[in-house]
Amino acid sequence: MRASFIHIADTHLGYEQYGVRERFNDFSRAFWQIVQEAIERRVDFLIIAGDLFNKRAIDALTLAHATEGLRRLQEAHIPVIAIEGNHDRSYYRDSISWLQYLCYQNYLTLLNPIIQDGVPQITPWQRENMLGAYIDLLDGKLRVYGLHWQGAATTHSMEGLTQSLHAIRVQEDEQGVAYRLLAMHTGIEGIVPRIQGLPTRSNFEPLREYIDYLALGHVHKPYEFDGWLYNPGSSETCSAEESSWDDRGYYYVEIDTDDPERIIDLSKKERKHHAQRIKNTRRPFLRYDMRVDALTEPNLLYARLEELCRREGPRSREQETEKHNMTPVVLINLHGTLAFDASALDQSRMEDMVRHAFQPIFVRIDNHTSDPDYLAEGEGSEHDGRDRSTWHELERHIFEELIGRDTRYLTQREEWSHVLTSLKQMALAKETPSEIAQFLRAKRASLFAPAVSE
Ligand SMILES: [Mn+2]
């Protein structure tokens, strides 16, 4: 038997990332592009290993975009087999999910085994009730099993499934099944340390005897092991973290059970198939880290950002035009220790600088800076706070230290520390905000008098 298929997962259709409409379209475009690949490569079927949709309750346009892709596959006579991921499941047991709706409309086969005492029952999928663990393709020579998202019960379900598969192995062989695929929406512990509670690699191992290709979804970072376990990752970028996993995409898999040597790569431990992970087209994400240490006032930070924009902006535009002519998402991460109060930064001014240089579809400047820790000057200083009577003096001294780190206030830090002390006293005395503001305005006017302007 010779066959080929495409394996995708985590397309997250309907995700309007950053509230940007064009990002909603991006997720659909990535899906459609892979659909187009499937049609051009004339594959025998397509597997969706969960999270076709970003959420359970989708809107009409998301459904329209999904059916647009699925309809093209239907017209090309390419069957689609899917399982539900954690994002696709319906809220209530009795209600129908959108994937079930698509199954009911004959756009796809949704594998959904009956679970008894935590054990998936190996019964053929039936159209009447849309339940069942497997479907046979290619004249019964290829069997696709599917197990939807099981959450905390995953490891237990896998043990049960292994036993069930062992029990029917002889029967499978007699029926002429030559290749077995299993789609599951789960991942391996440790691939992305943040995602916890997944089975370990050794939990999967017993299944290997019964399954030729394990099609996984759920973890958005791509990975593969031992020529049988594959996870393509997300097709569009669902979070900034994912942008560094550049080789995400889909698997194009060729099978030859009669003459596997023709296609297999022994160095990848392939046995009956050859699997290639291909990066799909998606919007570029540009992330830059900018250190802010030793920048003593906002203008110095703006200058550094301007320098980054001048250097990287034109370069990124050249690269992107060469590629797909998609304007990027730009994320700038400020980190280090800021020597002045972060609220003094003009966010929209910084965003405008980035917009001008990159012409991005979206820009975000994340402030991950830390405030300087205050350390009193000199060990055993007279104002160490142990003597309550010196607290006022200690406080004024701290104000003076902190305010002096911003060069705009440095020369008059003593005066400013008195202003801060007065502001605090006024607030404690419950003076009205307008009185406090008026006091601050007057002090600003006199202290900043012609010297500094902004
Ligand atoms: Mn997902």
Chain oligomer state = single chain
Q: What's the overall geometry?
A: elongated
Largest beta-sheet characterization: 6 strands, mixed
Bound molecules: manganese (II) ion
- The ordered string of helix (H) and strand (E) elements is EHEHEHEEEEEHEHEEEEEEHEHEHHHH
Q: Let me know the average pLDDT.
A: 91
What is the CA-atom radius of gyration, in angstroms?
30 Å
Overall CATH class of the largest domain: Alpha Beta
- Kindly identify the CATH topology of the largest domain: Purple Acid Phosphatase, chain A, domain 2
Tell me the number of strands: 17
Helix percent band: 25-40%
- Counting helices, strands and paired strands, the structural category is alpha/beta
Q: List segments where confidence is low: pLDDT < 50 over at least 5 consecutive residues.
A: none
CATH architecture of the largest domain: 4-Layer Sandwich
Q: What is the CA–CA distance across the termini?
A: 75 Å
Counting structural domains, the number is 3
Write a short abstract of this structure.
With 454 residues, the chain is of the alpha/beta class. The chain has helices at residues 21-40, 60-75, 98-104, 154-174, 201-204, 298-322, 347-358, 391-404, 407-410, 413-428, 433-447; strands at 2-8, 45-48, 80-82, 109-110, 115-116, 119-120, 134-137, 142-147, 179-185, 213-217, 223-225, 229-231, 249-256, 273-279, 285-291, 329-337, 362-370. The chain is elongated and about 95 Å long.
